[in-house]
Amino acid sequence: MSSRIKHYINRFEIFLRHRTSITISFTMVMAILVLGFVVSNFAPFDPRRWNVVPRDQPPSQKYLLGTTTLGQDVFWLLTYSIRNSIILGVVGSVVGLAIGGLLGLIAGYKGGLTEKIILVFADTFIVIPGLPILILLSTMVKKQLNMVLLGLIIASLTWGMPVRNVRSMVLSLREREFTYTSLFSGFKIFNVILSEYTPHILPWVAASFISRINMAIGMEVTLAVFGLSSLGEATLGTMIYWALQYQSVLRGLWWWIFAPVGTVVFIVLSFYMLSGGVAEYLNPRTRLYRIVTKEEVEESE
Amino acid sequence: MGVITEYIIPRIITYLAVIFIGITICFVLPRLTPLDPVLLAINRFTEYGQYYDPESLEKMVETMKELYGLKGSILEQYVNFLRRAFTGDFGPSLVNFPIPATYLLSKALPWTIGLLSLSTVVSWVVGNFIGGVAGYFSEKRWAKTLSVFATSVYPVPYYIMALLLMILLTYMIPIFPTYGATSLQPSLSLAFISDYFYHAALPTVSLILVGYGWWFLSIRNIVLHTRQEGYVHYAQIMGLPKRTVLLRYVIRNSLLPQVTGLSIALGGIFSGALITEAVFSYPGVGYLLLSSVTNGDFNLMMAIVTYSILAVATSTLILDLVYPLIDPRIRYK
User: Which superfamily is assigned to A41-268 in CATH?
Assistant: First the structure.
């Protein structure tokens, strides 16, 4: 058992050392996650509450990132916001990917009329300008809006692209020789998909999972500008919203506006870098290349 | 003939489906929620303390229902809604009461079209050209620097990009105006045109920056594959000038998927323009949408959403129909 764990740790280390960009972006993502999910639990008070600290204080030792006009501590508020934004991003990403992936799989395998109907709907959702509908939808449910619901709404508008991607992957995999070999040797189609196709689809799934978190976070930030995010909750978008509402830029309260804006940029860049690295690392072609070169190295040793 | 049945007809079917599904979504969404727009509107009138006797209030509700298309069975409402959508009748705007919502929209539309077409064309041309060249010379140091720049610009959400530019160039280094589209009356004079570009500069730049990153990265990937094709090697061995190989062989052939990419990305670009306008208080559709949301102007919102879908779907269709003219594989069929 312990040797297995060792094996996984070993492989993880190989992954981390594969590229400097992976090492850096993984560290950045971990820092974000720790800040959002660990550090936020140590907040001395509920950071969302108003008037718990003196107003408009610049960053100092006591208030790491300063305080807001509403009397909130920017640092603790930020940790809460990161957590909420990540939750929302993950929900939006997973659900959108699952719906789109499943429909793409069905479209690719069934073909015929089923495929055509699915594709027409998917194309519609790809072409339609998402933002106005997103705004319409959020206006409707503004009162009940929470992170999970927001994630679901975002997912319901962004499932179109994965359908196309997965379908074209299935179409190409279906005609490969190994599919026929497995089917003729008596494998069930489900098992073929599970054991043979996963390595081919996995890099795409991993990369788009991460980049879709970015997309969802960006959408929430945008919705918040329109005052349509759940404003009582702390998210990166609502932090920016309140900072702008209280004219923080004009009044020189730069820490209030730059903390969430900088965090969004930091999150988005590190997730984007990581998604590129993961896709490249998991790609069967480069993996094969790695295995081959590794064996050569071992042989020469 | 082959082109028509294999390419054009499926595109037109998709176009009709997009419009149909889009408009149906607009119809269904408001009816799924407990919010009653009529009640909201009546509340708006009565909350200022004015007294209405019950009978006239009842009449008002009736008229409102008709204005909102909420009369009759669901099917009747739906047919009515479709008819209204195609005749452009969305009833009066609630905030600017007697003015029709479509009139407000038609006032805002030219600004958005100006902003959008300029930034889309510039970012597509510049991004694809620079990305193509950088992909061809991908080992060079400057090419690597450029792609690091694109990589760090592309994933940043439109809104954040616009906000950063605004803070940087209107507050910290105040060289651009903070809001509005012009400070002069529209005319064909030189002063107005330069004023227009002065106001449009920052919103356009923010749109171009984000778009540039995407076009740069996607064509760079394509070029990395294209430059290894047999015909490119052949052209190089033949001793053709480097410029010819680059422009005529590599970039030209890599551009085709980018045209399709543009038609797919159009919806996103449009949404981006809406955000940018909201940030810079640019008097286009985005700004109108922002004010309609903050004021609860339901009719105006419906008009904007419906026409956004119509506009984006139509431009996508036009782009798709132009595509066979450029793609030799479809042209010679």
Answer: MetI-like (1.10.3720.10)
Which of A208, A214, A210 lies closest to A236, judged by CA? A214
pTM, to two decimals: 0.82
d(C-alpha A154, C-alpha A93), whole Å: 8
Q: Which residues of A touch B316 (CB under 8 A)?
A: 127
Q: Locate the chain A residue with the closest alpha carbon to B292.
A: A226
Instruction: Check residue B1 and report its DSSP letter.
Output: -
Question: Which of these, B272, B287, B292, lies nearest to B93 by C-alpha position?
Answer: B292
Residues of A with Cβ-Cβ distance to B164 under 8 angstroms = 261, 265
Separation in Å, CA of A269 to nearest CA in chain B: 6
Helix A254-282 / helix A198-225 crossing angle, nearest 10 deg: 170
Q: What is the pLDDT along chain A (301 residues), one digit of tens a residue?
A: 677 788 888 877 877 777 788 888 899 999 999 988 888 888 787 877 777 777 777 787 777 777 877 778 888 889 989 999 999 999 999 999 999 988 988 888 887 888 888 988 888 888 777 788 888 777 777 777 788 888 898 898 889 889 988 888 888 887 788 878 888 888 887 777 777 777 778 888 888 898 899 889 988 888 887 777 777 788 888 888 888 888 877 787 888 888 889 999 999 999 988 888 888 787 766 666 666 555 555 555 4
Distance (Å) of CA B68 to CA A117, A135, B41, B93, B300? 32, 19, 11, 11, 11
**Tokens at B109, concatenated:** 């539309």
Q: Which of residues 243-262 of A touch B (CB under 8 A)?
A: 249-250, 257, 261
- In this prediction the ipTM stands at 0.79
How is chain A split into domains, by residue range? 41-268
Q: What is the DSSP string of B292-329?
A: HHHTT-HHHHHHHHHHHHHHHHHHHHHHHHHHHHH-HH
Q: Do A221 and B159 touch (CB under 8 A)?
A: yes
Which two structure tokens, joined as six digits, stand for A257? 């506006």
